[in-house]
Structure formats: C-alpha cells, structure tokens
Amino acid sequence: MIHNDKVLEDVNALLDYDSVKDFLFMNVINAETNKEELSMEPHTVIGDLAIVYRVMIKTTDDQFCSARVTNEMLDYYGIDVSQLHNDALISSPNMMKPEIIPLETFLSFGGSATAPSQAVTAASQLRFKSVSNCSAQISTFSHLPVFL
C-alpha cells in the first residue's frame, strides 16, 4: 500500500541538501504534546498542529523508513525553515502519493464515518500500518556525522 520507487539510495546523500530535498515530506503532529521534540527540529506551527519534516529513506508495500530533519541538519545544510518547507511542499506529493481506498477498507481499520478525529487517526494507521523500525538501514548511518 505504501510504495514509492523513488528512495534515497545512498545514505551519504543525507549530507547533501541538493540530494535530500527531492526526498522530503511533511508530517503533522500535535504541537503541545510534542513540545520538547519540536525544540530540536525545524517545524511550522499551524494552530495546535506542527508540521515537521522527514527524509524518505526506503519504502516497501507496507512499510517505510524515514529520518526526521533536525535543527543541526538544517544548520549543516545552510538553509532556513522557509526553504525546507517550500522544498517539502514540492516533494511531498511525490513521496506520499494520495490514494483512493474503498470505504469498507477504511472502516475495517477502525475508521468512523461519524467521528472526524477518529477517521483521521484510522486513515493514518491505514496509510502507515507497518512503519519499519529501520534498524538495518539505521546501522548504515554509523559513519555519518552525529547531529545532536
């Protein structure tokens, strides 16, 4: 269900923003609940939600691996949040392609036609039903600079 043939082949590319920007996508989280995390990563706040930015590393039919963009990475790239956001707006539709699913499939994953917040939660669970912990891919990052 989550499949994209365009993935970051070489993890060394994480050090080069021109290589990374085509693999950016946005993730929406609760700003208040994730206040501590948001202090360490670039984000855009809209109401009580925050948009954070991720780099797609690998996808399969039912899982994906991505890395969050941190403030240190942003400094390393020499860009600001505005440029990151604009580039993510361009690449996100290519990384997370919209798909139409039958209502029965949506409801079978806990969706509710009457509760919008539950519907959004169910949709995200359906879309990302098996998020990989990426342990095999993460181990390949050990030679890269540490952004703490």
Can you give a write-up of this model?
Strands 1, 2, 3 and 4 form a four-stranded antiparallel beta sheet that branches. With 148 residues, the chain is an alpha+beta fold. It has helices at residues 17-20, 35-38, 71-77, 81-95, 103-108, 116-127, 135-139, and strands at residues 24-30, 43-46, 49-59, 64-68. The termini are far apart.
Binned, the helix content reads: 25-40%
What's the total helix number? 7
* Mean pLDDT, all residues: 74
Reported for the largest beta sheet, the result is:
4 strands, antiparallel
Determine the N-to-C terminus distance: 33 Å
> What is the string of helix and strand elements?
HEHEEEHHHHH
State the total count of DSSP E strands: 4
Q: Could you tell me the strand content as a percent range?
A: 15-25%
Helices and strands in order, then pairings?
Blueprint (H helix, E strand, L loop, with lengths): L16 H4 L3 E7 L4 H4 L4 E4 L2 E11 L4 E5 L2 H7 L3 H15 L7 H6 L7 H12 L7 H5 L9
Antiparallel strand pairs: 1-3, 2-3, 3-4
Put the structure in a nutshell.
The chain has helices spanning 17-20, 35-38, 71-77, 81-95, 103-108, 116-127, 135-139; strands at residues 24-30, 43-46, 49-59, 64-68. It has 148 residues and is an alpha+beta fold. It has seven helices and four strands, in the order H-E-H-E-E-E-H-H-H-H-H.
